[in-house]
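Record type: monomer structure entry
Structure origin: computed from sequence
Chain ID: A
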Amino acid sequence: MNYTRSSAKYNQTVRLRRIPAPAMNPTTPPDDTPDRPRRQLRSFVRRAGRLTVGQARALDRLGPRYLLDPEATALDLDAAFDREAPRVLEIGFGSGEALLALAGRCPWADFVGVEVHEPGVGHLLMELERAGLDNVRAICRDVVEVLVALAPDTAFDAVNIFFPDPWPKKRHHKRRLIQPPFIERLAGVQPPGALLHFATDWQPYAAHVAEVVDADARYVRIEREKAERDPLAWRPQTRFERRGLRRGHEVSDLYWRRTDVPGAD
C-alpha cells in the first residue's frame, strides 16, 4: 500500500499513582427514584502495581515531549506530531515492546499508543528516549474515550491490537474489547484501505473477533500473505506471545482492510 500523502536508583520502586476514573454516564431514573450513576463496563481492570523510580521520573521529565493530555476533550494529532505522515494506532501497548520496534522500523510513520497502566507508559518513555525516537505519542486513557476525543478528520492507516485480555470466562465475555459498537467507532477513524491487525494466543477469542469484524461491512478480511506486503502489517514477537507459546498456545494474526461500502458509515 502506498502511504505517500500531501498533506536514586532504578531498581527502587514507588507506589502507583492512581489515575482518577472518568465520570460515569448517569442513567435516567424514574421521577420517584434518586439519581444513581450507572457503572460503566470496561475491557480492562486497573491493576495494582508499582512504578520504578526511573518510570516515575520518565513520566515527569519526558511526559511533555511524548504524552498526549489524558484530560483533553479534543486531540489534534497534526499539532502533536507537527507533520503529515501515515499514522498507526496501537491499543493496549503494555510495556511498549511492539510499539517501539515498529516506530524504529518505520520512521516515516507516526504512532499513537494507548495504555491504561502507568508503569508500561513510563517504561515506553524511557525506551523512546534511549532509542532517540520522536515519532511516537502515548496517552494513558481508556481507548474508547480516546476515539471520542480525536479530531473529526483524524485517520489511522493502521490499527494494531496485540494480545488484549481475552477474558476467557464466559461470564466475562461482555468485557472483551472487540464488540460491534467498538468496531463501529474504530471504523470512524480509519479511511478506506486502512489496515486492522489483531493478534491473540487465545483461539476462542480469535473466533469471537473474526465473527464480530467479519459481520461489519466496513471491514473485509485479507489473508496473511497479502497483508504482509504492507510494511505497517509487520510486528515483532512480544512478551505475551512468548508466554503463550511456552504454554502451548496457538497464535493467530487476523487482518482486515477498511472498505468503502456505500451506506456502511
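Annotation 1: Confidence is low (pLDDT under 50) at residues 6-46.
Annotation 2: The domain at 55-258 is CATH 3.40.50.150 (Rossmann fold).
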